[in-house]
Each structure stands twice: as structure tokens, then as C-alpha cells.
Amino acid sequence: MFEHGRVGAEALNNILYSVTLRLLDNNGLGSRPTRAEYAVKAVFGILTMEGYLDLIHRILDLMLPFAWARYDFMKDALIAVILFTPVFALLGTAVISKRMAFFSDVLGHSALTGIALGVMFGLADPFWMMFAFMVLLAVGINYFKGITQVPSDTALGVFFAVVVALGILILSRGGGFNKFTGYLIGDILTVSPSQLLCLFSVFVLVIVYWMFFGGSVILASINPVLARTRGINVYLVETGFVIILAVLVAVSIKMVGILLVNSLLILPAAASRNIARNVREYTCWGILISLVSGVAGLILSFYIGTSSGATIVLVSALFYAVTTAMKLRMA
């Protein structure tokens, strides 16, 4: 009975879709049938992932009548930038406040070891091994710091040395290291629809996490003692934060590269801190600087023929230099 009901609902949905599309055509709104068809399919929820992406491309064609926007790979890269730069800035503000800049650097470089383990176990795509290794490492470092009371920089230095050496050791066997150098610098221009979907999922995850736990993260980073007196489990908050951070870094590695991912976390947040007067401004300025740096760096790299990730980072560095000068002038 339930199966018949489901089939009937699908049939009704398809009939409504066909009727709506015919009405659009009859009223002169279907002069470009493909655009009307995409719109109606989106409303009735029968558009594939590729269809949604093509619909977004068509919208961008209308909004961006520029030479660089004629290429699908640039439009895909723009979508990726719009998705990952705000969440990098959001988490970056907490990374700066918690003095975890070195921690995020260790996470980025641990991707090399995750890839190496994936290769060692014969996986066709080492991404999931890298993903799991980075999450486990983030939790492990946080736990190690908690039980040993070792200074943070010492613990991170030890883990950094071990994971990088282990990754190079495994990948260098038989001269296979060169096949994975693309992970070091990344290439946002080769982002695939599946990667965009994964990035969108992480975007939603980070936003939802920040809505519910952002206040606790900020309070725990500024004053852990006060956070505990208010009933906040600081260890669980920090563990949740490092897991979210590891997920974001893992998903972004192939696009921005191991060597640059930490810069995208630190530079916009550091620039924002120079000019912000409170926590709200700190977050808002960080997101704005990160987003503008990402879009400007992507477009600039297209015209001057440079690496997109590196250009984005240098634009962020320029923002940091300007805001530092502003801070010194106002002091």
C-alpha cells in the first residue's frame, strides 16, 4: 500500500511539473525552454546534482557578464570560494582567540600522512583515510594535552614532527611521492560537482554548529574558568571544535593545498582582529575579508595566470598589512 502511495505521489508530481512547464511556455515565459525547465524542475525537486549546478551556472551567466565567468571551471571555483571562505573565517576567529594557529597547521600537514596510509592500504581514493586520520589526530592531540598538561606548543611540535615524517616515509617508498604533490598546493580550478556537494554539506554543518555552540566556543577560548562556572564542559566544547575544524580542513585540502590551508584560517581572522571593536565585529569583518579575498584572488589569478590558492592567500595577506597599518595609525 505504501509503495502504491509513493508511486502515485511521484506520478502526480510529474504531472504537475509538465502542466506548469506548459503554462510557462504558453504565457511566453518559455522563450528559453531550458531555463524554464530547470526552474520548474528545481521547484518540484526532480533536478539532479548536475542539473542544479547547471542552473546555478545559468544564473551566474546572467549576473556576471565578464570574460572569466564564461568558463564553467571558473564558475565552479567561484561557488567553492563562496562556500569555504566564510566558514574558514568563522572557525579562524576561534583559532586565533584560542591561540591554535599551530594546531591548524599540524592538521593541514597531517593530510600527507592520511594520504600515505590510504596508499599503503591500497585504497583507490585515499581521501576517506585522510579524512578519518585527521579527525582522529585532532581528537588525539586534544586528549593528549588534557591528560599530560604538556605546554601546547610542545605537544603540537611533537605531533607535527611525527606525522609529517611518517607521511613522507610511507609515500617515498618506491619513489611514489611525486604522484601526490598536487595535495601540497591544491587546485581549486579542478573542483568537481561531488566535491562541491561535500563542501556545501560542510558549510551547512559549520553554520549549524556555530549557531548552537559558537557562544560556548568563544567563552571557553576567552575565559575557560568562567565557562566552567556556567556549566560548560570545556573539554567537550574543545573536542567538538577540533573535530569540526578537522572536517573543514580535510574537505578543503584538494582545493587549497596543504601548504596554504592554514593561511586561509589565520590571515582573514588576524586582519579582522586589527579593526574589530567587539566579538560581533570580529566575526563579521573576518567573514567579509575572507570572502572578498577569495573572490578577488580567484579572479586575479585568472588574469595573471597564477595559482588560485596562493593568490587568494596573498590578497588576504594584503588585507592583514592594511589593517595592521590602520591599527598602528589609530593607536
CATH homologous superfamily placement of the largest domain: ABC transporter involved in vitamin B12 uptake, BtuC
Tally of helical runs: 14
- The geometry reads as globular
Q: Give me the count of strands.
A: 0
| SS content category | mainly alpha
DSSP helix fraction: over 70%
Instruction: Report the order of strands and helices.
Output: HHHHHHHHHHHHHH
Return the CATH topology of the largest domain. ABC transporter involved in vitamin B12 uptake, BtuC
Based on CA atoms alone, the radius of gyration comes out at 23 Å
- Termini, distance in Å? 74 Å
State the domain count.
2
Strand content: under 5%
Major beta sheet summary = none
Which spans of ≥5 residues are poorly predicted at pLDDT below 50? 1-9, 23-33, 40-46
The CATH class designation of the largest domain is Mainly Alpha
Q: On the 0-100 scale, what is the average pLDDT?
A: 81
CATH architecture annotation of the largest domain: Orthogonal Bundle
What are the main properties of this structure?
2 domains, 14 helices, mainly alpha, 331 residues, ABC transporter involved in vitamin B12 uptake, BtuC
